[in-house]
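Action item from last week, closing it out:
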Amino acid sequence: MSGSEAFEEIVAALNYPMFVITTKGATDDDETAAGCLVGFASQTSINPPRFLVGLSKRNHTFRIAEHSTHLAVHVLSRKHLEIAQLFGSETGDEVDKFARCAWEAGPLGLPILTDASAWFVGRILERFDVGDHVGHLLEPTDGDAADVSRDWVSFADVRDLAPGHEA
């Protein structure tokens, strides 16, 4: 088995947590909201706190995030799996996802999903190419973890979704 085949077998067996990332247009005049389901995300540092989000270059959310200063990272419990399905199987190029779910304007006007168990907003410190995705290194600036649960949506819950865009 080649190294890339072994890698693919290993990552296919993992059950990563899934996050919904939201953002909005970069100016106060630009109210364009965007969001997508991501599995390429991880804490990268304890001190200072840092989090890395990978957004597919083909994704509507990526195109909005290119000019944004902040991203909101949401954790969903399994009881709100339909929200993960909405943000993972529809594209903002064709559908207004925010018309189909409850949300409110949060810090800096970012869309915050009402049904999220927990969320944080992060300032984008750096962007860098990581292949078919662009990494967005975040510095947490605000958030709410009052309802965080261990019953979050994971890759196994959304494995069969047809994505709004191919990676």
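Closing note: The chain has a mean pLDDT of 91.
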